[in-house]
Specification:
By secondary structure, this protein is an alpha/beta fold. It has helices spanning 12-23, 40-58, 70-74, 88-101, 114-138, 151-161, 172-184, 219-227, 236-245, 253-256, 270-274, 281-300, 314-324, 370-392, 395-404, 406-411, 414-428; strands at residues 3-7, 32-36, 63-67, 79-82, 143-146, 165-168, 195-202, 205-213, 216-217, 248-249, 328-335, 348-356, 359-362. The strands form three sheets. Strands 3-2-1-4-5-6 form a six-stranded parallel sheet, sandwiched between helices. Strands 7, 8, 9 and 10 form a four-stranded antiparallel sheet that branches. Strand 12 (348-356) and strand 13 (359-362) form a beta hairpin. The chain is globular and about 60 Å long. It starts with a strand and ends in an 8-residue tail after the last helix.
């Protein structure tokens, strides 16, 4: 029997997608599903919801159990799904936004790069290293499917700092072309099955390297239509980056506005309006999600008729391919072992991966166009130093990561960046280990 352990199972909607998908997959439908979360109330809600889906959509074939002991939840697992958020919206996410504001630093999402991404890594990595040690003891052969951000930094840390087989999974590659076509207004005109495309780079900054329609390069059409869009619109930042650097990027404009030093600038505040950049967007989303959950709880948790339809999440397809040997292809975040040849060795890259009984096998990409590799490196510098800080507890690495962040370096002096780091270390308190 396959055992799937879900860490952070209080993420009820996401648990519904990943574990509901698993219950609708023949090779996984009789799995033992172990749920763990530090929030006992949300854990119980997820268990109730999943048991309803198991009854209505799976004839009660799966076994669903909640655990208060994380190690016991992990014991003998074949697959572990990670969806934790250390520190939650309050206090940690609020701290990540409010303290930088005192330095005049604006953010949109703050969960992947920038000072917010650095500190989210520093408070999340210790928890992941803890449960990785438990996995090494009670389920050493399990695959860890990491969905927690900052994706590149946390996945890199797990692969460099533990023995656990890990892959990072994100939605941005799956939705890249469909969303692009929606933003261009051509989603209804074309059948995506008639297109071939290739995407690679790093998480949230991978690039649509090629896209062909019935064997012909479709990029000229994309760029022509993009030029006709009047700013601001939902994809303004990405279209601007494509215009300047030649290729479309996978992650949203609100994310990419803060991965680069060009868009959110104290000296040029008009850029925020020009490109429609939603400052403090993640705070609004968190507040909306909290409010929405209060309304959705009865509909999701206490709905005895609740069912599920399989989603596009990679997790169930990965688990099925490893269990059955029926191959699938995913976009995975893995260590760069001569995969993208003009990015640093052992950084975390996002590339196409074959999955079968041999596990997750990344594919060779070769060189990215020079300008794209250069953009990736500006983020990789920060990622590598942040991971070094988390694994060695060397405080100087935190400062160095922040000094090299493109946004921070474009807005603040070295002294201001150091002071900001010190303020955040103090504010996060016990959520961080002691650095030396």
């Amino acid at each position: 029997m396959v055992k799937i352990t879900f860490i952070g199972a209080g993420s009820t909607i996401f648990a519904k997608n990943v574990l509901g998908d698993s219950m609708l997959t023949p090779s996984l439908c009789e799995a033992e599903i172990a749920l763990y979360d530090i929030d006992e109330s949300r854990l119980k809600e997820s268990e109730m919801m999943l048991k309803t889906i198991n009854k209505n959509s799976n004839n009660n074939r799966a076994t669903i159990l909640s655990y208060n002991d994380r190690k016991e939840a992990l014991r003998d697992a074949d697959f572990v799904v990670n969806a934790i958020q250390v520190g939650g919206y309050k206090p940690s996410t609020v701290i990540d936004f409010e303290i930088p504001k005192k330095y005049g630093l604006k953010q949109t999402i703050g969960d992947t790069m920038g000072i917010g991404g650095i500190f989210r890594t520093l408070r999340t990595m210790p928890v992941m290293l803890e449960f990785a040690k438990e996995m090494e003891e009670v389920c050493p052969n399990a695959w860890l499917l990491n969905y927690t951000n900052p994706m590149a930094m946390l996945t890199m840390g797990m692969l460099k700092g533990t023995k656990i087989k890990t892959v990072g999974l994100c939605h941005s590659v799956q939705v890249c072309v469909p969303e692009l076509f929606e933003h261009l207004g051509i989603a209804e005109e074309y059948d995506l099955n008639e297109f071939q495309w290739k995407i690679a780079g790093i998480n949230h900054m991978a690039f649509l390297l090629e896209i062909n329609y019935k064997g012909e390069d479709f990029y000229p059409t994309i760029k022509k239509l993009a030029k006709q869009k009047a700013n601001p619109h939902r994809d303004s930042v990405r279209f601007e980056l494509m215009d300047r650097f030649g290729y479309y990027i996978t992650e949203s404009s609100e994310h990419n506005a803060e991965y680069h030093p060009y868009f959110i600038k104290e000296k040029y505040p008009e850029l925020i309006d020009r490109f429609g950049i939603p400052i403090d967007e993640y705070l609004r989303r968190c507040e909306q999600q909290i409010a929405d959950w209060e309304e959705m709880r009865d509909e999701i948790v206490h709905n005895g008729d609740l069912t599920h339809e399989r989603s596009r999440e990679y997790a169930s397809y990965i688990m099925d391919a490893i269990v059955t040997g029926n191959p699938t292809v995913i976009a995975g975040n893995v260590l760069n072992k001569n995969l993208i040849t003009n990015l640093p060795e052992d950084c975390c890259v996002e590339v196409p991966c074959l999955v079968d009984k041999n596990g997750i096998q990344p594919t060779y990409v070769g060189d990215l166009p020079t300008q794209l590799a250069a953009l990736n490196r500006t983020n990789i510098n920060v990622q590598e130093l942040t991971v070094e800080a988390a694994l060695t507890l060397d405080k100087s690495k935190i400062y160095q990561a922040a000094y090299l962040d493109p946004r921070l370096a474009s807005e603040l002096s070295l002294d201001e960046i150091k002071s900001l780091v010190d303020d955040l270390i103090e504010a996060h308190g016990d959520y961080l280990p002691e650095y030396h």
